[in-house]
């Protein structure tokens, strides 16, 4: 298994988990982080799933990033495609979170306007913390009622998800550190609304071709200036971290719990 080295802005070899967690510590206050992997030619999936692109380093950081989260946010389509189960961190991770003043487990929040989710799936049945389902007022009433038995179903828009309302609803429940694992449609919607603070992007050392999409999907362009915050390397993988340009100074000066 390849270790993880820091190559910018510092240079350190064979980072420990604690060192990696220190590098990814979010600032105090509200913060929305996106985490994705893509190939050198921009493919976000291999054979329809992102999991096939990432190597050991990507998987290690993927798990570590969840430790900092109050809530892990994922679109319903990604939950289905990637085969998500219950959001449950390891005993070691839960202990680390307790030591840092966090709840043992982050809350799992699924975004779905149509509520096309199975309330009998392990996502809900085996969840260590009652999940959230973020939807819209016009979502199907019957599906809403079924999901309300296994999750807190919250409206974050009328006919479409409103990213700012989404953040406000989560913040009102004490979930300031939002960690999103996709997918591209959710990312594009959040980006266009100007609510994304940080992108953690693994660049996989592979060329894929094919018809795979990008990490963001939205009908209109949403140019957003970003600043590099760190680069790690694991074998051929590069793990890049960017913060929004107008957030970069605050992020550099206020990391911590």
Automatic annotation (TrEMBL):
Q: Which GO terms describe its biological process?
A: riboflavin biosynthetic process
Question: Which residue ranges does the record assign to the Bacterial bifunctional deaminase-reductase C-terminal domain?
Answer: 30-210
Q: Which UniProt keywords apply?
A: NADP, Oxidoreductase
A Pfam family (short name) is: RibD_C
Keyword Iron-sulfur found: no
Q: In which pathway does it act?
A: Cofactor biosynthesis; riboflavin biosynthesis
Task: List the GO molecular function terms.
Answer: 5-amino-6-(5-phosphoribosylamino)uracil reductase activity
Matching entries from InterPro entries are given as: DHFR-like_dom_sf, RibDG_C, Riboflavin_Biosynth_HTPR
Q: What name does this protein carry? A: Pyrimidine reductase family protein
The species is: Candidatus Brachybacterium intestinipullorum
